[in-house]
Specification:
The complex is a heterodimer.
Chain A (H helix, E strand, L loop, with lengths): L1 H23 L4 H6 L6 H10 L6 H13 L13 H36 L3 H15 L2 H15 L12 H35 L2 H8 L4 H23 L1 H15 L4 H10 L3 H29 L7
Helix pairs in contact in A: 1-13, 5-6, 5-8, 5-10, 5-11, 5-13, 6-8, 7-8, 7-11, 8-10, 8-11, 9-10, 10-13, 11-12, 11-13, 12-13
Chain B lengths: L1 E9 L8 E8 L3 E6 L6 H8 L8 E8 L2 E2 L5 H11 E4 L3 H4 L6 H5 L7 H10 L16 H13 L5 E5 L7 H14 L3 E6 L2 H7 L2 E6 L2 E7 H6 L4 H8 L57 H7 L2
Parallel strand pairs in B: 3-8, 3-9, 6-7, 7-8
Antiparallel strand pairs in B: 1-2, 1-4, 4-5, 9-10
Classes of the chains: A mainly alpha, B alpha/beta.
C-alpha cells in the first residue's frame, strides 16, 4: 500500500516537472502549427484556444492531467490525431526491439562477467577492454558499423524499417537490437564481474570446492546464483534506459517506433506527444522498480523475512 | 591413515612459511588435536589436507592419505579425495552454507542420494527430515553446524577435519556439537582448535603449533600433566581456572609473530622466559615430542 502511494507520488511530481519544463522551452507551438505561413490574429487565437494555449500554466496543467488520468493524452499538434493512438500504434515495434535487446543484455552481460571473474589474467583483461570499448561506443555509431558490415557487405540483414509479421520483424530488428544492447551489456558485464568476484571470495564457495563440487557447478550454483541479486536489480533498472536509447537506434535504422516518434516530436515541438512519451518513460521506470522489488525475494530468500 | 611429512606452505608476499616443516600423523581410530593461537598455521594445515590451499600458495613436502599424496593429485583424484576420503567441518557454519539454497541442496550437492538418505543423514545429527526444505537463515548456528556435519558424513569419509567447529557457537551448543562429534565414530579425526581444554576433552594426542611449527606433541594426558615446552607451559598457565576466581592468569608476554617477520632459530625464543643465546642459532628439532633445546634441563629443574 505504501509502495503504491510512493509510486503515485513519483508519477504526479514527475508529470508536473515534465509539463513545466516543456512550457519553459523556447518556441510557441502555435507558430509551428502554422509552419511559417502568415496568419490572421484571429486564426492564431483560434488555434491557441483549440489547444488551451491561452489559459494560465496551472490551468493548462490541470486540464492535461485530467485528460491523462482518463486515458486522454491530448491531440498531437503535428499529426493532428490522438496522442494515445499515435503511441499505441508504435508500442509493438519498440517493445519487440527492447525485449530483444534486453534478452541479449541479460544473456551476454552475466556470461561475460562470469568468464571474466572465473578466468583472471588474459581472458579477464580482454573482456574488460572489449567492455570499455562497448560502453564508450554510442549506439548510432555501432549501428552504422553493423549496417556497413551485415547489410551492405554481407546482405544478411535489412538496414531499414521494422518489417511485417513476426519472423520478418525479428529479422529487421536484429541489428537495431544489437546496437541497442551493446553499451548496456558492457556495463552489465562489469557489474556482474565485480559481483561474482565478491562471490568467489565467499567462504561457501571455498567450502563447495573443498567438498569436491566440480568447478563448473561451483560457478553456476554458487557464484552465478549469489550474484543474481545484483544482476536482477541492475537488469530491471536498465529497461527505462533502453526506451530512451531507442531514440538514437530507431532513428539510425529508420524504425518507426516510439524513439523515432519522440525524436521527431521534440524537433517539431509537438508538446503533447513529448509529454506523453516522457511520462511513459517515468511510468516504466516506476514499474521497473516495482518488478525489481517483487523479484528481490526470489533472488535472495533472506529478503522475505524483512 | 594420514601422514604429513615435512609440510611447508609459503603464502605470497610473506617472509617466512606459514607452515614450516610440519610432520603429523593420524592413526586409525585416533582423534588428534592441532592446537595453537590464531595465525599459527593450524587452519592452513587442515585445509592443505583437503588439497585446498589459497591461490599462489606454494606447498612442499608430502600429505599422504591412505598411501596417496594429496599434493600430487590431479583434479579427478582430488575430487574423489574430497568427497570420499576426507571431509571438513568449518568454523562458521553460516558462512559455509550458501544462503541462497536449501539445506537439502547443500547435503546432496556432492553425492547423489535420494530423499530418504538425506533425511537419514539429518537424523544422525539430530535434525528432522523437514529441515531439508529450510533455508539457512531459518536455522540457528548450532543447527547449521549439524547440517555441515551431516554433509561431511555424506561421503562416509575416513578422516574428519574439524576446523574450530565450535568457536562460533554458544557454550551450550558447543557441548552438544562436541558430544555429537564424539558419538559419530568416524575412523579418524583431526581436531583443530585454539582451546587447549577442549582439545583435552576430545583428543587422544595433541600437537601444539606456534608460528607454523610443531612445538610439542604428546598424548593428551601427559601433555597436560607435564608440559615440556615453555610455550605449552605458558599456554596452560594462561588458561583461566575456576578454582582461582578473580585472579587473572599470567599471560605470555609479547605477541605471536606475523608472517612478515623472519624468525631465526626457535620461533618462540623472543617470548620465552628460559631463552638462551643458542636458541636463536638454529631450529630445534622435535626430540621426544618437544622442540626445545632446554627441554630436558628444564624438566630436571622442576620438583
Amino acid at each position: 500500500m505504501r509502495r503504491v502511494f510512493w509510486m503515485a507520488l513519483t508519477l504526479a511530481v514527475s508529470s508536473f516537472l515534465i509539463f513545466g519544463a516543456l512550457q519553459l522551452a523556447p518556441g510557441d507551438p502555435a507558430s509551428f502549427l502554422l509552419s511559417g505561413r502568415s496568419a490572421t490574429p484571429e486564426a492564431i487565437a483560434a488555434i491557441r484556444e483549440r489547444y488551451h494555449l491561452d489559459e494560465p500554466f496551472l490551468a493548462q496543467y490541470w486540464h492535461w492531467l485530467g485528460g491523462v488520468l482518463t486515458g486522454d493524452f491530448g491531440r498531437s499538434v503535428q499529426f493532428r490525431s490522438d496522442v494515445g493512438g499515435l503511441i499505441a500504434s508504435r508500442v509493438p515495434v519498440t517493445l519487440t526491439l527492447i525485449a530483444m535487446a534486453f534478452l541479449l543484455i541479460m544473456v551476454a552481460g552475466p556470461l561475460l562477467g562470469l568468464l571474466s571473474a572465473a578466468r583472471p589474467g588474459r581472458v579477464d583483461r580482454s573482456i574488460l577492454v572489449a567492455g570499455s570499448v562497448a560502453v564508450a561506443t554510442p549506439s548510432f555509431v555501432l549501428g552504422f558499423v553493423l549496417i556497413a558490415i551485415f547489410s551492405v557487405n554481407l546482405g544478411w540483414f535489412p538496414s531499414m524499417g521494422a518489417g511485417e509479421g513476426l519472423a520478418d520483424r525479428l529479422h529487421h530488428l536484429t541489428l537495431p537490437a544489437i546496437a541497442l544492447a551493446l553499451t548496456f551489456a558492457g556495463v552489465l558485464a562489469r557489474v556482474s564481474r565485480s559481483a561474482m568476484i565478491e562471490q568467489l571470495g565467499q567462504e561457501y564457495v571455498t567450502v563447495a570446492r573443498g567438498r569436491g563440487v566440480p568447478e563448473r557447478t561451483v560457478l553456476r550454483r554458487h557464484v552465478l546464483r549469489g550474484a543474481m541479486t545484483v544482476i536482477v536489480t541492475y537488469g530491471g533498472l536498465l529497461v527505462p534506459g533502453l526506451l530512451v536509447s531507442t531514440v538514437l537506434v530507431e532513428t539510425t535504422f529508420g524504425v518507426n517506433g516510439l524513439g523515432q516518434l519522440l525524436q521527431y516530436s521534440v524537433t517539431v515541438k509537438d508538446f503533447p506527444v513529448v509529454q506523453a512519451l516522457t511520462l511513459l518513460t517515468v511510468a516504466l521506470f516506476v514499474l521497473a522498480n516495482l518488478v525489481v522489488d517483487l523479484l528481490a525475494p526470489l533472488a535472495d530468500p533472506r529478503v522475505r523475512n524483512r | 591413515m594420514l601422514s604429513i611429512e615435512d609440510l611447508t606452505v609459503r603464502l605470497p608476499h610473506t617472509a617466512r612459511p606459514a607452515v614450516d616443516g610440519l610432520s603429523l600423523t593420524v592413526a586409525e581410530n585416533e582423534t588428534v588435536g592441532l592446537v595453537g593461537e590464531s595465525g599459527s598455521g593450524k587452519s592452513l594445515t587442515s585445509r592443505a589436507v583437503l588439497g585446498l590451499l589459497p591461490p599462489k600458495a606454494e606447498a612442499t613436502g608430502k600429505i599422504m592419505m591412505d598411501g596417496a599424496d594429496v599434493l600430487a593429485m590431479n583434479r579427478a583424484e582430488l575430487r574423489q579425495h574430497r568427497t570420499r576420503s576426507v571431509a571438513m567441518i568449518y568454523q562458521d557454519p553460516r558462512a559455509a552454507i550458501s544462503p541462497f539454497r536449501r539445506v537439502g541442496d547443500f547435503l546432496t550437492e556432492t553425492i547423489a542420494m535420494d530423499r530418504a538418505a538425506a533425511a537419514g543423514l539429518l537424523e544422525t545429527v539430530g535434525l528432522r527430515e523437514s529441515h531439508l526444505r529450510n533455508r539457512p537463515h531459518e536455522l540457528s548456528g548450532g543447527m547449521l553446524q549439524r547440517v555441515v556435519i551431516a554433509a561431511a558424513l555424506a561421503g562416509r569419509p575416513r578422516l574428519l577435519l574439524a576446523d574450530e567447529p565450535t568457536t562460533a557457537l554458544d557454550v551450550t551448543t558447543q557441548a552438544e556439537i562436541i558430544a555429537l562429534l564424539r558419538r559419530l565414530r568416524v575412523p579418524g579425526m583431526l581436531f583443530v582448535t585454539h582451546d587447549l581444554e577442549l582439545a583435552a576433552t576430545i583428543c587422544d594426542r595433541v600437537y601444539v603449533m606456534y608460528a607454523g611449527r610443531v612445538m610439542e606433541t604428546r598424548p593428551t594426558g601427559e601433555l597436560f600433566r607435564d608440559p615440556r615446552h615453555p610455550y605449552t607451559a605458558g599456554l596452560l598457565a594462561a588458561t583461566p581456572r575456576l578454582d582461582e576466581l578473580g585472579t587473572l592468569p599470567p599471560a605470555i608476554p609479547g605477541r605471536p609473530p606475523d608472517l612478515l617477520a623472519h624468525l631465526p632459530g626457535c620461533p618462540f625464543a623472543p617470548r620465552c622466559p628460559h631463552v638462551l643465546d643458542s636458541c636463536t642459532a638454529g631450529v630445534p628439532g622435535l626430540v621426544g615430542g618437544v622442540a626445545c633445546l632446554r627441554a630436558e634441563e628444564l624438566c630436571d629443574e622442576r620438583p
